[in-house]
Input
Amino acid sequence: MEEKIYFDNGSTSWPKAPGVQEAVLELLKNGAFNINRGNYAGAYEVESVVLETRDQLVQLFHGTDSRNVIFTPGITYSLNYFIKGFLKTGDHVLVSGLEHNAVMRPLEQMKLAGVDYDIVPVDEEGNLDPEDLRERIRINTKAVIMTHASNVCGTVVPIREIGSICKEYGLFFAVDTAQSAGTLPVDMQECQIDFLAFTAHKGLLGPQGIGGFLISERLDKKMEPYIAGGTGSQSDSLLMPDYLPDKYESGTMNLPGIIGLHASLDYIREQGLKAIHDKKMELTEYLLNEVKRIPQVRIVGRKDVQDRVAVVSLDFLTIDNAVAAFELEQECGVMTRVGLHCAPAAHQSLHTFPQGTVRFAFSASNTFSEIDRCVEGILKIL
Output
C-alpha cells in the first residue's frame, strides 16, 4: 500500500482513525462479552462503552436522548428499518433524484405493498430546489427521504429548508448521512429530522459492519420493529419490547464495531468537524482546478467547492471510464471507484447513465502530492 494512492473514501474510509484497531483488538483480546445477557463485571464494562457511544452520537447529530440511538449492521439496514417499518399501503413518499439504491430498492419492493413514491428532480449539477418538493406533496404523502450529500457528485442537498417544509406539512423527514456524517455538521433539531441514518465506516472513520439511526419520539410511536428477536430484555414475552433502544435492537450486537466507532468518534471530536471538512475541500478544489485544464475529461456535478463534499466524479470522453480507472491504478497506483456507484437514479439525473463515472473521494489523510501524481497519471493515460 505504500506505493498506492487511496481515493475511494466514498466507498469506505482508509486509513481508519487512530486508535480504532487498538480498541477493537483490546475488546476481542480481553473480553468481548455480550451486553444485556451477561450479569458480570466484564459485560457491564462493555455496556458502559456502548452507552458512551450512544451519547457521542447524540452530541454529534444533536439528537434528544441516548435511548433514541439504535445500532444496526449499517446504513442500508437502517433505511430499510424506516421504509419497511413505517410505510403502509396507500402511503406516498418523496425522494431526491440523487438517491442511492439503499433507498430506491426498498421503495421499489414496497410498491408491491401499495406504497408509491415520486422523485424530486435535480439539475445537472445535482442541485435541488425545495420548492420543487413542495409542488409534489400529495394528501397521502407521509414522508420525505433524502440523501444529505450525493455519493456520485458530492452535491449537498438543502436539508434545513426541506425539514422546514416537512414540518409545515406534518411530514416525517428521513436523512441519509452516508457521505456527510463526520464531515458536515448535522443538527436533527434544527433540520426537523425524524430519522437520521448513519454508517461508521465512511466519514466517521470507523470499522465496516456497524451503523444505525437516531429516531424522534413522534416517529417511534408510528414505526414498528422490522426485525424481531431476542433483546436480553422482557424474555418472558413473545412480543418485542416497546421501549427504546430494545424495540429495534434484536440479536447480538456488533460490539467490536461499536467499540471501534467509539474510538473514531473520539478522534473526530478532537480534530473538529470544520478542520476535517476544510482539509477535504482544499484537496477537492485542487483536483477540480487541475482537471478543468483537461478537455478530454468532464467534471460531473458542481465545478466548485460550494455546497459539496469531497466526492468528485469524472467522465472520460475519449476512453472508456472502466479502462481509465484500471490504467490509473496500473500507471500511478491510484485506487478509485468506477461505474454507477449503486445509484443509477443519480446517474440518470446527472446524464451519466449508463456509462457511469470514475469517482475520486478524499479523506483528510490524503495529500496534494497524491493529487499531483493522480493528475500526471490522467494526462499519461489520455
User: Anything to note?
Assistant: The radius of gyration is 21 Å. The mean pLDDT is 96. Residues 74 and 207 are 10 Å apart (CA to CA).
